[in-house]
Amino acid sequence: MAQQPQQHGQMASRQGSVVNGPPSAGMGPSTGPQQAPPPGGSATSQQNLNQIVLEYLNKKGYSKTEATLRRESAHHDDNGRPLVKRAEDAGGKQYEKAYALLLTYVEDSLEVYRPELVRLLWPIFVHSVLSLAADFYPEDCKQFSTRYGSRFEREHPDEVRQLNTVTLPEHVQASHIGKIFRGNKYRLTMTTMAYSMLTQFLEARESDGGSVLMKLIEAHMHIVTVDRAVAGVERSLAAMMARKGGDYDMPGEDEGIPGHNPGSANTDRNAPNVLARLALGPLPMDPDAMEDIRADLQDEDARDPPKPGQNSLVEEFEQRIKQEPTEDAPTREQVPLPPPIARDIAMEVQKIREHRDRFKIDPKTGGVGPGVSVCMYTFHNTHDSINCLDFSGDLMLVAAGTAQSYVRIWSLDGNPIPNTADANDANTKPSSSRRLVGHSGPIFGVAFSPAAAKPSSSSVSTGPRYLLSCSADKTIRLWSCDTWTCLVAYRGHDAPVWDIRWGPQGHYFLTGGHDKVARLWSTEHIAALRMFVGHDSDVDKVAFHPNGLYVFTAGDKNVRMWDINRGTAVRMFTGHTGNITAIECSPNGKLLASADDQGSIILWDLDKGARIKRMRGHGKGGIWTLSFSVESSVLTSGGADLTVRVWDVVQKAAEASSDGAMVKPEAGVSAASAAAVAGAAVTNAVKDKQKGRKEVVVTPDQISAFPTKKSPVYKVTFTRGNLLLAGSAYLPETN
């Protein structure tokens, strides 16, 4: 206890020596209370300190060190903080400064170059957000996304929502958009002059953000320069001037990820600009079957002679064979099929009759479009449970896939549906509907096998034999249309199956699902015959080419065309800004139509791999179904905006440039219907204006529009007689 005061005194003495410092430090011992520092602020103190150090270095002869300090001090402000003269020195603000520089340059550029330059804004925006997150600037990342993200909400709503959640390096590595954009270079095509002017500007404004933009372009973009004189019509001077005031933000055919030459499925950076040759002609008939078909047609002509001025069935058949091109047609060895049976012969005979007697839809001439009527089937009391619809080829049945995991079949004429399994059961009452139970998840796709109306003189049934359904339970089921029972459950997909289609001959079928893979199946095999792999996200929609040699898959905002023999992609079509919700190939095998959830339909030329035109008129929410007329001159569509619309395929591209909704008299529609369409368009325009969205623009190639009463349209289809059928479900709660 007696030693404690002594230890305390020693500690106090040691602390005092530390505070006062040794005499060798140039400071004398403290003789009184500490004095407050002189007023004047930190700026004056920093200048005095720099001056003292410089004088000391000069006195000691450290000239090099003195010169270095003087040079570096010139880059600091009065408070000692470094002066930011380059955008790279601004930390997270460098990307905002650089993007503002690019945005100003694009908006002030000449009208002839703006359509090309404006396409830089989206990829630079994405990579700026990803770079901010990767460099751990979360607050700057949020501010940047909030400030500039609204510019792209119309064209890239899903991506903008994903980017709003990316603020940390972990998000860049885990997010889908981060993996796609950082794992691939964004391809963009620009004319030589536009790219040269851009690089000159960025070099001249290097310290203002030009170097930041150049680094992003060099690291994450692949810009292909082309000469305007040889770049094609789309980039001609006349085309650029014609688009003045139009939609510059729509992506080009070769733009995006994966980047590729227009139409080509080869995404290699150095891939040659050469497209694979396609066999788009119709599949030749089996020689033995042709003789049987000709004999049956002769019997039909003898039994029911043609009317005056009308071709006989044999003449119609011969003309159809002569019109079929042979130079670009596939061989029957390329599409292996089982030998034809009596049912196949009877179906071909009926197809020839329907083709001769069809309602002919001529292309739009003299500014007047062909009049097309719609036969609409509306389902009531569905409680929003219907996911998909399909009509049978003989126009006798309709099938609906439901969210309650079952398929419902109805008879279109109200007559009882035949069932061979119930033929010997006297207790079973005939019914005009059937329910097929077997799936354990919501059903997203149903498809009847090819069928035709039964000829009056034939005893062979030509109705549908099978029905296919796909579900969230990862299976595809094959149902018999004779016994209405499940025959086979096909398993192979690792995730929900979104869509299913029969091949044109009814032997193969195609599926696409959440596992990013499309599969080709045959009814004779339990396992898939082909797997088509290449999409970066879900395969949402699938379709067959009319000759059966090619298939189409839609996903990640592009459509791919595959050869079923080699299992390789032969075409790729990009240009959609929304998720693709419907695809359809024309009966002549030359065109492809694809639609998205932003209300746009794009028409593609399969041989050239090029976009023909973009058609607009639908509101947002999704175009769920497409169908071509027999002549491939008219396209019809339906979807979530409660309308069926008819489009002129033959008319050349003429993009609407109106800023508001364009309501015009509809050809082939009554005055009351036209007024209803006009009223709906005005109402939607007012709602869009109140919500701050762009109003719907109707392009001139729309022939007519048919509004429904709170009934989203799930299916439209042209019959072989050019009768347009549509299926919808009445939803009272729909706005």
Describe this structure in words.
WD repeats lie at residues 379-420, 436-480, 490-531, 532-572, 573-614, 623-657. One of its GO terms (molecular function) is RNA polymerase II general transcription initiation factor activity. It comes from Venturia inaequalis. The protein is of the alpha+beta class. It has four domains: 44-79; 87-242, Alpha Horseshoe (Serine Threonine Protein Phosphatase 5, Tetratricopeptide repeat); 287-357, no CATH class; 374-655 and 699-729, YVTN repeat-like/Quinoprotein amine dehydrogenase (Methylamine Dehydrogenase, Chain H). It is built from 17 helices and 29 strands. The strands form eight sheets. It has a four-stranded antiparallel beta sheet, with no helix packed on it. A four-stranded antiparallel beta sheet has the order 8-9-10-11, with no helix packed on it. Strands 12-13-14-15 form a four-stranded antiparallel beta sheet, with no helix packed on it. Helix 2 (41-60) packs antiparallel against helix 3 (63-73). The termini are far apart.
